[in-house]
Specification:
This protein has 259 residues and is of the alpha/beta class. A seven-stranded mixed sheet has the order 3-2-1-4-6-5-7, with helices on both faces. Strand 2, helix 2 and strand 3 form a beta-alpha-beta unit. The longest helix is centred in the last third of the chain and has 24 residues. It starts with a strand and ends with a helix.
């Protein structure tokens, strides 16, 4: 059976979360054989590779497989690596911390498939139930990004992101850090793709440590990197160096075979 959706989940030092993660995706995917889970060991320094191998050896977890990166090169690199190893006609990514429930990824796919042109559309999460300070911080970043890039860039780090595989042909210059979420939305906007938001529940992390903006220091680093990416994209926008629309006519099949 052909794979409709590949869900990529980057895992960096997530050994304590893996059992719950795989179990939750098993429940969410259910009997569907056309969805695969691609777990990316993103250069972990704990026992993530061993725990991952043990879990995936069980027959009930045959819907999932693992790909490995020896040395961590960033959150975005891990996602891009997993996406390029995926088999699905449609691709998605989400986080290993289970703050976005796996069933919301499937719901986002359903939303995408109901859109007029799924191959030229992107569905992304819209987090609900976040703490006030986190919501305020995210909104402030969204106002800055939206003003600088002349678009709507609120809650860009919300998961999941779901889109057709052909979008990968425009991701050659994608960043390897947390600004990947902003970058793909910018590319989708430049390509005039239809972007739909789907409300997702936002839960607290119960195991492991946040790798992004979960702490004040993390927020500072995320803010610094995001501002840098915003100005970089704004500069490119002004200089009209990007020709995304011209790439839309390239054959998706060629890109898929190269992934």
């Amino acid at each position: 059976m052909n794979t409709t959706l590949s869900i990529v989940v980057p895992c960096y030092n997530e050994s304590k979360n893996l059992d719950r993660l795989v179990s939750a995706f098993r429940d969410a995917i259910g009997d569907r054989k056309d969805i695969e889970l691609v777990l990316v060991d993103n250069g972990s320094k704990d026992d993530t590779p061993e725990v991952m191998a043990q879990l995936l050896a069980h027959p009930e977890n045959a819907f999932a497989r693992a790909v490995q990166i020896d040395v961590n090169q960033g959150y975005g690199y891990g996602i891009l690596f997993g996406l390029r190893k995926s088999h699905g006609e449609y691709l998605a990514w989400t986080h290993a911390d289970l703050q976005t429930p796996p069933e919301d990824v499937i719901r986002a796919l359903d939303c995408l498939m109901q859109m007029p042109n799924p191959k030229n559309s992107l569905v992304r999460g819209n987090r609900k139930g976040r703490p006030f300070f986190d919501q305020f911080f995210t909104s402030a970043m969204g106002w800055v990004a939206s003003a600088a890039l002349s678009g709507s860039y609120f809650d860009v780090n919300a998961q999941p992101k779901v889109f057709h595989h052909s979008l990968m042909q425009h991701m050659d210059e994608a960043p390897y850090d947390f600004t990947l979420d902003l970058y793909i939305l910018y590319v989708a906007s430049e390509l005039k793709m239809d972007i739909e938001l789907v409300d997702v529940r936002f839960d607290l992390r119960t195991e492991g440590e946040s790798k992004g903006g979960g702490t004040l220091l993390g927020k500072y680093r995320l803010c610094k990197r995001t501002f840098g990416q915003i100005w970089k994209l704004r500069k490119a926008l002004k200089q009209s160096q990007r020709t995304f629309t011209s790439k839309q006519d390239e054959a998706p099949a060629k890109q898929r075979s190269a992934a």
